[in-house]
Amino acid sequence: LIRVDLYDSIKVGNRKLYTIPIPTNGEVKSGTTLKLAKGRNYLLSKSLMFTEGSKLVIEEGVNVFMKSDTAGSVGLKVMGQMDIAGSATNPVVFTSSKVLTGTPAGGDWKSLELEGNGIRSFGKISYLRMEYGGKATFSLSNVSSETSIDHVQIFKSSGDGLLVTDGDVNL
Prior knowledge:
The protein is mostly beta strands. The protein has one helix at 98-101, and strands at 9-12, 15-19, 27-28, 33-36, 41-44, 48-50, 55-59, 63-66, 76-78, 81-85, 92-96, 112-115, 123-131, 138-141, 148-155, 162-165. Strand 1 and strand 2 (15-19) form a beta hairpin. The protein is globular, with a radius of gyration of 15 Å.
């Protein structure tokens, strides 16, 4: 478990952000859980890949600011488990760091990609908003109907907001 209370914090504009720790090779290994705590703001400065057997847990009200220094370079790829537990009044938001420092635009960050084998569940994604992502901001590749996805909103992406290939996921 990567503990959220141990994250370093920085200030961007006038907002305190917790920095998400990035392993040297950008991979979160099997057996590791990364948890983002309710109501906190985080900065993801480099791409992360969750390998099979790892887990990403995001509680309601979390804002993840994707570093936007190089357009479309930062993203998340999940081949493990994912539990995004936003609510109608307190969704989870992935957005551009330029929301804090400049003018955000579609393509400021890459994508949230789920890549499966068509038979197992990724977990549950509820009340997720993604802003200013790149082509295929939310990409589902070979995701099974065992994965629960509801109330997802994509705002101002630079291409297709949603891309579904293979699998039988229910949206």
